[in-house]
Design goal:
Length: 109
């Protein structure tokens, strides 16, 4: 699986007008579009913990279908999921969820 921390950071930074910051300390990468968070990665965790904003209805489906998708850790659990990247979700599914999160934030701004 190509999803390691370095790959994810590089992938997330490729989205248009995305900034990387550390408002919660050096342990959490925060990716934002127009100052609105859409993705967080806990630094140096195994498995990788990727938190993404998500439509609430889709969140429910994902949490029921996949053990590695859980309510957002330390986030509004209605709108955020934390994904433990263990291989249960395919690379394409993870990339689609990243894009979904980014698009949700773009619509809000």
């Amino acid at each position: 699986m190509k999803f390691n921390q370095k790959y994810l950071v590089t992938h997330l930074k490729k989205f248009k007008n995305v900034s990387l910051s550390f408002p919660f300390g050096k342990e959490v990468y925060v990716f934002s579009f127009n100052n609105k968070m859409f993705a967080l990665i806990e630094k140096d965790k195994t498995p990788i913990r990727l938190s993404l904003k998500c439509d609430p209805k889709l969140s429910t489906i994902l949490r029921e279908r996949y053990e590695e998708v859980m309510p957002g850790i330390n986030l509004n659990q209605r709108y955020w999921n934390t994904i433990l990247i263990t291989g249960q979700l395919s690379e394409k599914e993870i990339e689609d969820l990243i894009r979904h999160s980014y698009e949700l934030i773009k619509v809000e701004t």
